[in-house]
Amino acid sequence: MLSVFRFFQPAALGQWVISMAKPYREGGVWSFRLRVQGQSLYRTGFVTAEAARKEYGRLKQILLSVGKPAHAGPFQTTLGQALQAYALERFPFMKGAVQDASRVNRYLRGVNLETVRVVPPITSGSSTAKSAVHWVVQLDPAGQSRAIPKSLKKHRDSQRARTDGTDRIRKQLAQTPMAKVLPYQLQELMDTMGKEGYQPATLSLERALLRRLFNYARQSWNWPEPAHNPAKGLNLPKVDNARDRVLTNAEWVRISQALEESGQNPHVAPLLALLLETAMRVSEPLHHLSWGDIDWDRYILKLRDAKSGAREVPLGPGAIKILRILEAGRKGGDDGLIFPVTYEAVKAAWTRACASAGVEGVNIHDLRHTAATRFTLELNGNLPVLKVITGHKTYSQLNRYINVKPDDVSRLLHGRPLTEAEAPAGLHMLASSPKSLDQVEPASSEKGGPGNVIPLFRKAQ
């Protein structure tokens, strides 16, 4: 049986009406029209009148049993329209809405729908009250061109050329009524993404967005179709995103020098240095850190929001030095964000600096791994203290970030020295010789400050 949905104009919302003309021949197939609770459906492509009657009965029973659906219902709402409505309703309460908005917009742009933009709500810089609302969601006009920095244009052009197949399938899905989306279509999307070089973790996140959408439509919008979530049970490659890359002091010095010589955004270098000195996630100082969040007397940084909720970050001597230097260049009365820079700009600067410094296989989040490993050595493995620094909720989460290597253990077992250059970035060895891991300079020492990153701020002094 080949059946096709078409739609005609519904009557006033809330009207509980059932109407049906008998199945009728249309060309070489049978068709019918059905109107239930404001939803007007037209189906065609049935081989026999009996097949059309059976489908009519099934649809009528489903639509009457669940009650009136929200919005236009699953038969008259495309996947693109549903994603847009879902973003408007749920993204204000989702911490990861920035990343999900980017995924949603790939569907919306393909069918010329208004795109989603999330911005932080306007709050008092000194307010510490918790709020369930993390973002304000806005719609930008369809077809509006995005401002892409010149430094990213070549990368974006290459990315678009590489993902033609994925974009084509997204466009097809965005035009498909929600009730008609089938698992094989989503499996085709996942397979094509894999062939075009997307990482397994990216596939998993894409599938998770679609799975949440269909669950939300069924549970919150009262949509009866599709009867089963088509995003469940898909075959995806195994996600293995464990990282164990730890920068050495030698690598960090080269990256620091490359950042200084680049003359790029003045906020990037101190931000990266602060990540290394605090083990924070890059999103925490970027999105949540303002001058009113620093308690200078307690050496504490108050994050009003973070991945695991509000927390206080201890500030060591190195972090205090960085913030004091930034404070010296602060405009009077400015209580806004300490780092008014986008993640895209930070990532681009980091990528260029690593390439210039000849440091391979490292990303920004590896600074968190490096800091956790460095503090583990400085604190002689004091995990309760380290958990406060990193903000992890469990020791199993924390252990993923402590990346002591077999070479480190072998060095300990044989009493071989650990040089300053080989040590995790930010870890400073005592001046005595030979140097080993039991001769780490205490984190509380003033010499423990980031001597190898201070040159980054010479222009600000």
UniProtKB/TrEMBL annotation:
Which residues are listed as membrane-spanning? none
- Please name the source species: Acidithiobacillus thiooxidans (Thiobacillus thiooxidans)
Q: Where is the Tyr recombinase domain?
A: 242-414
> Looking at the record, which segments are called Disordered?
432-461
The text of the family note is: Belongs to the 'phage' integrase family.
Reply yes or no: does the keyword Nucleotidyltransferase apply.
no
The protein's matches in InterPro entries, at most eight in alphabetical order, are given as: DNA_brk_join_enz (IPR011010), Integrase-like_cat_sf (IPR013762), Integrase_catalytic (IPR002104), Integrase_recombinase_N (IPR010998), Tyrosine_recombinase_XerCD (IPR050090)
**Protein name, as recorded:** Tyr recombinase domain-containing protein
